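ok so I'm stuck.
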Amino acid sequence: MNPQITNLVVILFMMQVSKKVPFDDPIVLNGVRAAYVVSNLIILAIYVYIQRSINKKKDMTTLKYVEPAPMGSTDEPKLITTTVHAYDTSQLRSLYKSQLMGVGMMAVMHVYFKYTNPLLIQSIIPLKGAFEGNLVKIHLFGKPASGDLKRPFKAGGGLMGGMQGEPKGDKKSIEAAERSGRGGAKEE
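replied:
not stuck anymore, here's the structure
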């Protein structure tokens, strides 16, 4: 099933559940806080394991792809030449950043604005998202990096993911970018 649809179902279900949870009770509130912290610690442990797996494999296979220009930019797409190790590391770094952003936003909402209901939802959705990630499927579950898991990964189906454009790893796009001299940035 589509992850976006299951996220919507989980959110709607958890919103109904959170209406019934007595957040006025300090024991319940501390339990929900603990669930949120444990959820984020599990995600952190998964990402650390993946980082160790990436560094252990240290796959230095060359990976070429054409990165689309940023949305609204007049720049042309640029050719990126990197390794599988560097690509996975950069993808993992972006996962760390997005998780920290979520924790930061949740901290502001809970501590500053005193919202408690999102704690319950945010203890499930990011954990679910972590297990649905491409790096987790490859490095934790041992699925082969082919089909949908072929690098470069397709853009996430988020709000702006479909509008951005996807990195192109096909031979025709790479040759066209090499001929036109667009970029050729080498990432180590």
